[in-house]
Amino acid sequence: MAKAVRGRPRKAIARKTPAPVKRQVAKPGVTSDKIRALVYNLSSRELDELIQIAAARKNEEVTTARASFLDEVRAKAASLGMSLADLVGLGNGKATRKKASPAGSAAPAKYRNPETGETWSGRGRPPRWISELEAKGSNRQEVAV
Predict the structure, then answer these.
(1) Which terminus has fewer CB within 10 Å in the chain: N or C?
(2) Domain assignment of residue 85, given as a range
């Protein structure tokens, strides 16, 4: 029942439900106990075959459900004058702008340690090997790439 708002009952919203997909239903006389009994009496080869058949049936169900969902979305979009590209943001007419460099990408190396081959881009705090070279009296330009 709808929740009351300031003493008045809320109006129930009528929603359209999609048309149900017609599918074959298991016979009402077969219960899970009967199915379990049948499965436990199968050999391993028969179980493998049953698994393959069940997997194929499941794939059919998923494919049918996806197709019906896509048809519903296409119909709804067409009724609103939209295409699927508009729905996913591809049909807005605006050109997408790519970032110059994604966050976290490494800058090109400007300095290389001659002993270990370590590199430094020149950004941020200098590594220990640069500080040690400068403390000895060397210049950064001597190890520039």
Answers:
(1) N
(2) 30-90
The pTM of the full predicted model, rounded to 2 decimals, is 0.38
38 and 82 in a single domain? The answer is: yes
Which of 91, 144, 137 has the alpha carbon at shortest distance from 122? 144
Whether 120 contacts 111, CB under 8 Å = yes
34 & 80 share domain:
yes
CA separation for the pair 52, 78 (Å, rounded): 39
Shared domain for 35 and 79, answered yes or no, is yes
For every one of its 145 residues, what pLDDT tens digit does the chain have, with 9 covering 90 and above? Answer: 555 556 666 666 556 666 666 666 666 655 788 888 888 889 999 999 999 999 999 999 999 999 999 899 888 888 988 887 877 777 554 545 555 556 667 788 899 988 888 899 988 899 999 999 899 988 888 888 8
